Amino acid sequence: MATTSSKKLVHWWDVSGSSIDGALLSRTPTPRPTSTDVVVSTDPDSTAAARDRFDVLIDTIPVPHDLGPYLSLVAMDGTLSQVGYLGSLTVETMDLLLGRKKLTSGGSGGLAATAAMLEFCAAHGITADIELLPSGRVTEALGRLERGDVRYRFVLDLSDLG
C-alpha cells in the first residue's frame, strides 16, 4: 500500500476500490505538496466533510491525543493504525463499535524491516519533510513544539557536538 507523490511521504491514506487516493490530515490549512487533498483537523467543517471517509488512517502523532476525532473519519470496517505515540492512550469502545472499526499499531518492525523500508525509500526517491536545526537550538525547538509552531519534524544536527 506504499504509494507516494513526488518524493514526499503521505502519512494518511484513503483507499477507494482498486485505486489509492492519498490525503493528508493537518492542524493547519497550509497546502502541502504531498497531497492534493488536505483535511484540516482543527476545522469542524473540514472534518465533518471527511467523516467516515477513510478505509485506512495512519496516525503518526507523537504525543498523547484523543483518538475519537480520528476514529470518526474512519469508514465502516476501516482501520486506524496508531504508529506515532508509544505510550498509553484511552479509546472509547463505542468509537470502535459504531462502524465496526479496528485499532491497530505497527511498532518499528525491527532492524531488518526498518532497513528494507529505508532501502525502498532510497530506491524510489521517497524523502521526509524536515526542519534541520543545529544542536544549540534544542531549547528553541522544544518551545516551538509546545506552541504547536512546527510545520515539519525537527531533526537536530549533532555534528557540532564533536
TrEMBL record:
Keywords: Metal-binding, Oxidoreductase, Zinc. InterPro entries: CAD-like, NAD(P)-bd_dom_sf. This is Zinc-binding dehydrogenase. It comes from Lentzea atacamensis. PANTHER family: ALDEHYDE REDUCTASE. GO terms for molecular function: metal ion binding; oxidoreductase activity, acting on the CH-OH group of donors, NAD or NADP as acceptor.
